[in-house]
Amino acid sequence: MNPFLFRLFRDNETRVHELNYLFWECTTRCHFHCRHCGSDCSVQSREKDMPLEDFLGALDTIPQKHRPKGFTVVLTGGEPLLRPDIVEAGREIRRRGFGWGMVSNGWFYDEAMQRRLLEAGMGVLTVSLDGLEASHDWMRGMPGSYRRVLSAIDLFAREPRLNADVVTCVNKRNLGELPAMYDLLKGMGLKQWRLFTIIPIGRAASDPDMLLSDAEFVQLMDFIREKREEGGPMLVTFSCEGYLGRYEEKVRPVRYFCHAGINIASVLIDGRISACPNIDRDRFSQGSIYEDNLYEVWEQRFQPFRDRSWARTGRCAGCREWRNCLGGGMHNWHGPSPEVLQCHYSKTLGP
Fold first, then answer.
1. Is the N-terminal amide bond of 78 cis, ω within 30° of 0?
2. pTM: predicted TM-score of the whole model, two decimal places
3. How many CB atoms lie within 10 A of CB 249?
4. Dihedral (Cα; 183, 187, 189, 194), 10-degree rounding
5. pLDDT by residue, tens only, the chain of 351 residues
6. Distance between CA 74 and CA 92 in Å, rounded?
7. Which residues are within 8 A (CB) of 241 and not within 5 positions of it... i.e. 6 or more apart?
8. Angle, alpha carbons 129-195-69 (nearest 5°)
């Protein structure tokens, strides 16, 4: 799309700000020990699982007329399948007319669980595969997790009732494994493979193996571009984490647009209301379901997401691509730093 026309589209979407995607951080318990975890989840989380009725009460504040077709609630964590009431939660969400899905590490996802989740109306599923066996298990801190997630992928990849994808956090260790992973996933019948990179927050902040150099980032862009040009039954795409300059529309189906706070909200484990769960919750949370009406917060707040002029500082202040980038993904503004943590556009400029 022409950049000018896309900016008009983006500005109109921002003005209308239709909520159509809601994350629920339903637990922060997790039995994995992922090297890149931004939430520092653990089996014995300090936060108790949010009671289902608390979340449903917040969901019920969304008026029927403002529940567009395709509105999706996504259960995330932690590991959602650690909740004993996960099927009931999905069923209650679906009963209210919302589509729902889940982000999972795949460990507990077997044939019986898939059947129960589908019967409860699950339509969307995302699991992570972070390399071939040694790399994935190293990344996830859980021996045997590679074989468990492959078993899960084998179950859902050809399930016509699911809009399912696999996500991969690309790092120094697994970058060279991407071609073999592509062949593996395509052979399993997967329809969508989404790649992303890490920002230096959480456990990844002190782990140099997580962060790609600029040259490695360009290598990743070229890999995705080449696979998209080849075509085929499996769509390979880069995540929506930042503006990419010369790679725009070559590694994603549309131009860069951070939908956080524009179409996407979240209810966090402690009840705070924000956009995507990996956005700095102390800096950008907009309210709490225990004190506020979720839908009123959506309509009346979220100004830092809808007017990004505050982000035109530091390296972004004089950037010629500001109007296309608006400071990159909101998750890139973590902590007290007065400027964006990473600039994907600068990585693509080359020597």
1. yes
2. 0.95
3. 14
4. -10
5. 899 999 999 999 999 999 999 999 999 999 998 887 755 444 455 689 999 999 999 999 999 999 999 999 999 999 999 999 999 999 999 999 999 999 999 999 999 999 999 999 999 999 999 999 999 999 999 999 999 999 999 999 999 999 999 999 999 999 999 999 999 999 999 999 999 999 888 777 778 888 999 999 999 999 999 999 999 999 999 999 999 999 999 999 999 999 999 999 999 999 999 999 999 999 999 999 999 999 999 999 999 999 999 999 999 999 999 999 999 999 999 988 788 999 999 999 876
6. 13
7. 196, 197, 199, 328, 329, 331, 332, 344
8. 100
137: its two tokens: 């298990």
Structural tokens at position 89: 């939660």
Structure tokens, 261: 């706070």
